[in-house]
Amino acid sequence: MVKRISKKILATAFSFMCIANIALTAACNNPKTIVDYPEPSTEVIQSTDTGGEVNDIPEEEEIDEAFLPEPDSLREEGKFKYNPSSLNSTFKNQISNPKVIKAARKIMENVYNVEETFVLEDEYEITEAEFNIAYQLATQSSPMVDSVYITREDDTNYKVVYFPKVDFDERNQPIYGEGLTPEEAKAIFDEYETFVTDMINDNLTSENTDMERAEIIYKALIMNVDCTYSPTDTVEDSDDNVSEDSESPMLERVTKGELYIWELPYLYMYFLNQLHVDSMLVWCWGEYQPQNAELLDTEMGDEENCIWLIVTVDEKPYTCNIIFEKGVLDSQRLIVGDYDPDLQYFGMSDETRDKSMKVFYINPSGTINPVKEPKVPNCPEDYKKQ
């Protein structure tokens, strides 16, 4: 039986994730500045339209290619093609050093190609601290990178372990062991890529707006991805409920119907990364409001924590709670097998959100750069389909 992760453990993991990110970045604060933007050019341009007069107009600063928009195959070519180096916009916007962004993409490409070792050429000129930031950015953007363990061999050489076994020491720090062969990892990657590619191409067209992309994939995920819930017994950590594969990465389980429902927001985020829709994963502390849905009400119980995405399109942010949507749909399907989702938790305002989870405190779920940590936006309006 697949182990259902304890909600308390999951909530604690969220807190540790935020603390770990802050600690890692803080530990990397050297006296030198590593994230400066290039200085804008102030070259004076000679105008030919004013009889040779000199106009003191600064030349427009050239944008580094690292900051250019990601290619959008669905809109540009009419068919979606998986992009292994597509970055999460929220985390990317915390980075001002283009070399860190380029290094993150290089990490993602090498993992996608299941390289056991790879080299970051001298052109990147990044320090160990900068590599750690690039590694975090890659992990937050790609479930493939989130499934590996990378060690720095020297200034330019890195080693990758795919789907490593993980134990924890007395301080609850991870200890990484042996993993899968590149061939075994590639098979899992290929299955996931096919899953993502087919779901997007089967449900979206080049004409869909960003908000339509977010809504259609949200619905497709809750209708087609099977999830597991917490056990109803009181002994959550009993050996009878634990299997050797219980801690396997999400990527290894998502296509097998073994995804834990609290992982669904991460999967939704990874899809939105591929679709270039701005999203922010947020964690909240609050008071759950029963929704008259058996599976969801049992899952939440007196739970005080929750996680969801805020999707922003045309500068308008909306709360999208895919956990609640999935829990309600599965509860309804216990009664009516082919019930369609109502999408009542998609595109919520703060006021509507509080009717299911009254929020006392909310924060981004993790950060790469605490100095540039984004603030959780207010969601003043409900999204209404036109």
What is this entry, summarized?
The protein has 386 residues and is α+β, with helices and mostly antiparallel strands.
Number of strands: 13
Average pLDDT rating = 81
What is the H/E order? HEEHHHEHEEEEHHEHEHEHEEHHE
Q: Span between N and C termini?
A: 45 Å
Molecular shape: globular
Please tally the helical runs, counting DSSP H or I stretches of 4 or more residues: 12
Structural write-up:
The protein is of the alpha+beta class. It has twelve helices and 13 strands. The protein has helices spanning 7-27, 73-77, 89-92, 98-112, 128-141, 182-203, 210-224, 250-253, 264-275, 294-300, 322-333, 350-353; strands at residues 45-46, 54-55, 117-119, 148-152, 157-162, 166-168, 174-176, 227-228, 259-260, 278-288, 305-313, 316-320, 357-364. It has a four-stranded antiparallel β-sheet. Strands 3-5-4 form a three-stranded antiparallel β-sheet, covered by helices on one side. Strands 1-2 form a two-stranded antiparallel ribbon. A hairpin with a 5-residue loop joins strand 6 (166-168) and strand 7 (174-176). It is globular. The two termini are 45 Å apart.
Offer a few descriptive terms:
3-stranded antiparallel β-sheet, disordered N terminus, 12 helices, 4-stranded antiparallel β-sheet, 16% strand, 35% helix, 386 residues
Helices and strands in order, then pairings?
Layout: H1 7-27, E1 45-46, E2 54-55, H2 73-77, H3 89-92, H4 98-112, E3 117-119, H5 128-141, E4 148-152, E5 157-162, E6 166-168, E7 174-176, H6 182-203, H7 210-224, E8 227-228, H8 250-253, E9 259-260, H9 264-275, E10 278-288, H10 294-300, E11 305-313, E12 316-320, H11 322-333, H12 350-353, E13 357-364
Parallel strand pairs: 8-9
Antiparallel strand pairs: 1-2, 3-5, 4-5, 6-7, 10-11, 10-13, 11-12
